[in-house]
Automatic annotation (TrEMBL):
Entry EC number(s): 3.6.1.27
Task of the protein: Catalyzes the dephosphorylation of undecaprenyl diphosphate (UPP). Confers resistance to bacitracin.
Transmembrane segments: 42-62, 88-107, 119-138, 197-215, 227-247, 259-275
InterPro entries: UppP (IPR003824)
An example molecular function term from Gene Ontology annotations: undecaprenyl-diphosphatase activity
Places the protein is found: Cell membrane
Its membrane topology: Multi-pass membrane protein
Additional remark text: Bacitracin is thought to be involved in the inhibition of peptidoglycan synthesis by sequestering undecaprenyl diphosphate, thereby reducing the pool of lipid carrier available.
Organism whose genome encodes this protein: Paenibacillus sediminis
Family: Belongs to the UppP family.
Entry keyword set: Antibiotic resistance, Cell membrane, Cell shape, Cell wall biogenesis/degradation, Hydrolase, Membrane, Peptidoglycan synthesis, Transmembrane, Transmembrane helix
Name this polypeptide is given: Undecaprenyl-diphosphatase
Catalyzed chemical reaction(s): di-trans,octa-cis-undecaprenyl diphosphate + H2O = di-trans,octa-cis-undecaprenyl phosphate + phosphate + H(+)
Amino acid sequence: MDFFIAIILGIVEGLTEFIPVSSTGHMILTSKIFGYNQEDPLLSTFEVVIQLGAILAIALVYRERIANLLGFNRTEPISKKIAPRNRLNIIHVFLGIAPALIVAFFAKDYIKSLFSSTATVLWALVVGGLFMIFAEWYSKNKAKVTAHEIDDISYKQSLLIGLYQILSVIWPGFSRSGSTMSGGMLSGVSYKASSDFSFLIAIPIMCAASGYELLDSYKNFTADTIGYFIVGFIVSFVVAYIVVLGFLRWIQKIQLRHFAYYRFVLAAIFWLFVIR
């Protein structure tokens, strides 16, 4: 690894972690371009580090909401008209992350075995894109939207979003944010509220996953590698912060189907020019 590659991978992570295009899929495909093996311990550690940079970015964006959830900040929530008893709380977050964490714990060996298959990622990009298009159509034409803001989300909807998130756990390339946003829209949650909830529950679930991986890979932090890790972390943090702010600002103009179309094009390019 050199600093150029560290910067490129940091940019890829920051660009893709929180939008529904699959950061895992992009990291696998980018690593393939550079000739890296996904089973390389150094690469795995580097990916964990730059993921932590992206987590810090989203935590900074949602710092007031997190403070409210933890009881450190008594400021008004995003939905000021919502009664205090109905505000989003820790139980909502727990229901949103528990299913994926349980599946990831018991199926971790099976999940890791899928990371070496580029074809698996490409199929996930396509199927996940179709799933997103269906969710957007269903939300606009069939579903009764009952949660327009994040504070409107019920416990049942939080759990359903958590169950949909399992798709991204067992199928690398499906996209965590894509599955949670789509799951929210299929469950009667608006696109905006689904996006906010997806970003928020990303913090604990990604911290848990990254922390677990670091327990196995901390030995890769050496004097020779620490510089690459720091550069990747900083780049990922800055890019992810900009991307999330941009996504939240333009959320009504950038619909799920637009990300789905991008996924189809990416899968086709890799299928035609990289795999074949």
